Structures are given as structure tokens and as C-alpha cells.
Amino acid sequence: MTQEALAARFREINGVHPMSADDNAYVSRQYRELTELCAEQGRDTDEVRGLMLAGKLPLPSYLRSDGAEMVPADFFDLPDHIGLDELRDWFVAQWQDVADGNDEWQAYLSGQYVCLHSVTPAAIQRKDQLIKAIDATTDPAELKPLVDELDLLEPDFTAYDRLRFNGPVSRDTHITALRRRLNP
Asked: What gap in Å lies between CA 87 and CA 79, rounded to an integer?
């Protein structure tokens, strides 16, 4: 029952979009199956699913076509390091504005931070800073290092991501397009 409820919650947030064979292959390369990661770490998968549904851990980043719940390899690093019961307060406190911290906590719980190799407050904040700096910069010499740094933070995206996020993703708008412009 918990697996079905988690899949329903995932679809409620992300919509129902097809995963192509390329999407499935990408996700399988970049993410881990929740059941395998839990088994390796001696965790009860249904208990983890329950924590996801209770808003204590993020939802999976993807549901593969076969229904496998896919999470980052470092999925448990923050909760293990900070402590599950302290995680929310610690996470929110990483932002100066509590409202911003609460918004980022909700975004973190959605599992939609597929735009970062490692989903931490520091990485989230750095990506935001880079996007703002890129948007404000017109000098190609200043732009290139910003784009290069953002490129290091972000993995590739899938066609599925462009469906669930309703259009181009930050890699499209702030890396690929700018590289084309900088290197015609």
C-alpha cells in the first residue's frame, strides 16, 4: 500500500508523463533504486516510503517506467548527518529568511531538485546565485566562468524533465543556450 501511495503522491506533484527508453537509461545511470539503496544500508524500504509520505524525507526524484522509485545515491547523507528529527529545522535555518527556507524545504521534499548533483542547501543557494549572476552579466569574459561553474553543479536533464517542468530547464536556458551564444 505504501508504494502505491508514494507513486500516487509523486504523480500528483509531477503529473503523468511518459518516460522514454532514453529517460529510463539516464535515470538508471544517475540515480539509485530506493529498494537497492535501502537494502545496502539496512533500511526498511516501506518505513522510508512512510517517511517520504509524512514529509520527513524527499519524494523520489523519478519513477522509472517499471515503477522503480529512483533517488540520488547520497539520498540519506543529510538526514544521517543532521538527524531526521532535526533535519527540517536545520534545513530551513540555512536561509536568512524563514519564508525562503520553508519554501526551499517544500521544494526539497518534492524530490524535484533533479537539477543538482548533490541536493544540499549550499548547492541550492549557489545555483540560485549563479543563475542571478548569469542573468545580470552581459560581458562574455565574466559570463563564461559562471556558466562553467553552473555546469559543474547540474547534471543533464531528461526529456521527461522538460515535460514535468513545462518547458526548458535551467541547463537549456543558462548553460546550453549561453554556450552557443559564447561559442558560435
From this structure: 6
Beta-bridge partner residues of 32: 71
Q: Are 159 and 22 in contact (CB under 8 A)?
A: yes
Grid coordinates of 26: 539516464
Instruction: Read off the pLDDT of residues 127-162 as tens digits, 9 standing for 90 and up.
Output: 999 999 999 998 989 999 999 999 999 999 999 999
State residue 179 phi and psi, 5-degree precision. Answer: -65, -40
CB 117 within 8 A of CB 153: yes
Query: Over the stretch 115-128, which tens digit does the pLDDT of each residue have?
Result: 999 999 999 999 99
CB 116 within 8 A of CB 124: yes
Q: What's the rounded Cα separation, in Å, for the pair 12 and 10?
A: 5
